[in-house]
Amino acid sequence: MLSPLELYSHIYILFESPSAVLIDLPQRRLRFRYTPGELKIHSYQYQGMVIDTDQRIGTLTGLANKLILKHERRAQDRLALIPESSIEYSTTITGHISVSIKLDTASKTHAYHVDEVLGRLVDNGNLQSKLFLCYLYALTSHYLPDALTSHTGTETALSILRLGAVSSFNMLTASNMDILKRIAYLTPAREFYPAYIKVIQQVYWDNNLLFIS
């Protein structure tokens, strides 16, 4: 269940007592608790939340590395935990994009609230979490709109980039600039051919993405 979030070698299972087994993910700064005989795995960091048996959220289809939590009493209260690192992606035979995050170099984990009322994923207000989510939306875009947002990933990504919270900042960190560059590289590259005539253009597309992205 935790393999989308962490490598097996970095998951530590600790037998604390006959009634408590601790599951520690130190690199993600996450910890879970399992009581033998129960069907739930509880989160320490997010009180009252357990790992959801349904890992679908109606968006970011094709993203392999996410873990969905839900509240024990409020099933509609859900969180998507997504590690941030370099990303590999390719087109599948179904027409979707397969996106995987390199867990061995993941630096942090973002928590996004699944807002099913307004149909969106809500970040924690940090600029990096907004930009990373924007990048994931762009990569996982499809011809059909997402069930959660009622928009394609490309449309949602563009709406994030237009937010006032994204354009109003004191300074950009190296991580902010890195992910903005990765978003920019999704755009087809264009140049004149031949360069000195400037009549015909060459367009370079990313062969691992759908043209809609």
Q: In sequence order, what are the helices and strands, one letter per element?
A: EEEEEEEEEEEHHHHEE
Total domain units: 1
The rough form would be described as elongated
Largest sheet: 5 strands, antiparallel
Helical/strand content category: alpha+beta
Number of helices: 4
User: pLDDT under 50 segments (min length 5)?
Assistant: none
- Residues in helix, %: 10-25%
Number of strands: 13
Kindly report how far apart the N and C termini lie: 30 Å
The average pLDDT value, as a whole number, equals 93
Strand order of the largest sheet: 5-6-7-10-11
Rg over alpha carbons: 20 Å
Strand content: 25-35%
Brief synopsis:
The protein is built from four helices and 13 strands. The protein is of the alpha+beta class. It has one domain.
Task: Describe it.
With 213 residues, this protein is an alpha+beta fold. The chain has one domain (8-204). The chain has helices spanning 127-139, 153-161, 164-167, 174-184; strands at residues 12-17, 20-25, 30-34, 41-43, 49-51, 67-71, 78-84, 87-91, 97-101, 108-115, 120-122, 189-193, 200-204. A hairpin with a 2-residue loop joins β1 and β2 (20-25).
SSE layout:
Blueprint (H helix, E strand, L loop, with lengths): L11 E6 L2 E6 L4 E5 L6 E3 L5 E3 L15 E5 L6 E7 L2 E5 L5 E5 L6 E8 L4 E3 L4 H13 L13 H9 L2 H4 L6 H11 L4 E5 L6 E5 L9
Antiparallel strand pairs: 1-2, 2-3, 3-4, 5-6, 6-7, 7-10, 8-9, 10-11, 12-13
Helix pairs in contact: 1-2, 1-4
What tags apply to this protein structure?
4-stranded antiparallel β-sheet, elongated, 4 helices, 213 residues, 5-stranded antiparallel β-sheet, alpha+beta
